[in-house]
Fold this protein.
Amino acid sequence: MSDIVVRAQGLSKRYQIGASRLAYRTLRETLSQAPEASLRRIKSLVTPSHGPDKAKNLIWAVRNLSFEVTRGEVLGIIGRNGAGKSTLFKLLSRITRPTEGWAEVSGRVSSLLEVGTGFHPELTGRENIYLNGAILGMRKVEIGRKFDEIVAFAEVEKFIDTPVKHYSSGMFVRLAFSVAAHLEPDILIIDEVLSVGDAAFQQKCLGKMDEGRRGGRTVLFVSHNMGAVRRLCTSVLWLERGECRAVGRTEYVVGAYESTVLGLNQGAAASVALPGAGSPDAPGHGLRLHFLSEDRQPRSRFSLGEPWCVWFDFEIVRPVKHLIAALALTRLDGSPIQTIWSAPSDLSPGCYRGEYPITLPLAETELTVAVGLSSFERGFYDANGAGHVTITAEGARVAPLRSSSCGVLFSTSRPAIFGIGAAPDGAGKV
């Protein structure tokens, strides 16, 4: 048996926008107008239409997509709003037909595309669970074995015999996801509906999908939460204006997507001016950030395993005791990677530079760099997201890392701080 469970070839969907909707007609009207409709259809085939005017009203929601998903794979679908993600899922779920191309899906499919999909508002939660199971082809006894687990996961025990039209959107999504995940589909399709639930339930859902992945279930997952995509997905398909912009390893595609969406790219500045002091009473403020390679060449793009460093230039305008200059590396999804502090120093007025060597073996990613100054553990200057650095697999010296989670690493090494340029009282090296 083939390991490919989803295969698409030239998959496309076109819509006509601005077209007036036809009113519902009776059977008699439909039959009486059938000959006239046939003649119009034949005429449209032999008579050229007004191309430019008609083309203006056509939009390709999905265009020429070709991809394969293997058994047990978790494929993330990412892209801006309107990129075609939901349309693709509707095509794979057989809710709508493609205009061109085809898609082949093997196995039992459970879809959670939007709040209310597959639920009858007049039926109770209990009745909708059995209805969805029946749609998936499950026997009543099979659904019964999973029933208590479904209800407990959704946390709707008190309302299970209430018509779902009285549920809040959060309750609706909790029950819908629980049904979709527990009725043992071969392929689980999840659109961006989990954002309706609270943070705790979102974590439960991500854990349940991760559990399904480890059990060999195929998951197709749309999300704007890049942290969740990184955690769950083994590969990612990036859609832009209905077309495939990139497909491949999660870190590579997500990193490229974040770079484009946030305006970051290979030409990101290797030297960045920092904002001034936030308060006129602050004893100092940042000047510039510099990103340099091992041979001291200014760059903002580095290969896996390649040593690099950050220079943090700052100015002290009044004598400061116990000054600490800190630097933090953070991924674009907010996950902290590394924080480095200088040793406490007593500094006179002048311009100084902190040099921070970075030797942490990172995965492919985009990083933001933040810096700050403090005295006796009370901060008086900070610049968040001041600079951006790309870590790429091109020319990698080590194999890419892949982990299900990440955390902050506090460096035990201390960066050197030394004076630069002229200072009012001739401050020198610390």
Q: What stands out?
A: The chain has two domains: 4-15+60-261, 271-419.
